[in-house]
Amino acid sequence: VQLQESGGGLVQAGGSLRLSCTASGLTFRDYRMGWFRQAPGKEREGVAYISASGSGIIQLYADSVKGRFTISRDSGKNTLYLQMNSLKPEDTAMYYCAAKTQDNNWSEVGSYMYWGQGTQVTVSS
Which of 27, 56, 100, 119 could form a disulfide with 5, with the two C-beta atoms 3.0–4.6 Å apart? Predict the structure, then answer.
């Protein structure tokens, strides 16, 4: 199984970025997916979650990103996305995508089976 993130970079405050996570080696549509981030010296935290493909897709967000970030998935392309708008310096972190099958606390790091290697997002003030 491989999850590969891309799309990170340096952006000014107020700007936008779209992260992508391409999955291989698993039946992507069957997995619940999350985006996490980790800033230097801080714990990894959940940013957004999307349920497995099918009817009744559920999207959940950390309070700190609600209204600014949007998670989506394209099962035909085995790809997960995170559209990030109105970026703030405090959004600076390494961003990771993760996959799981368990239906439990979406932001629990330990519940995810597979992780990507991350993509750096830096927001300048």
Answer: 119
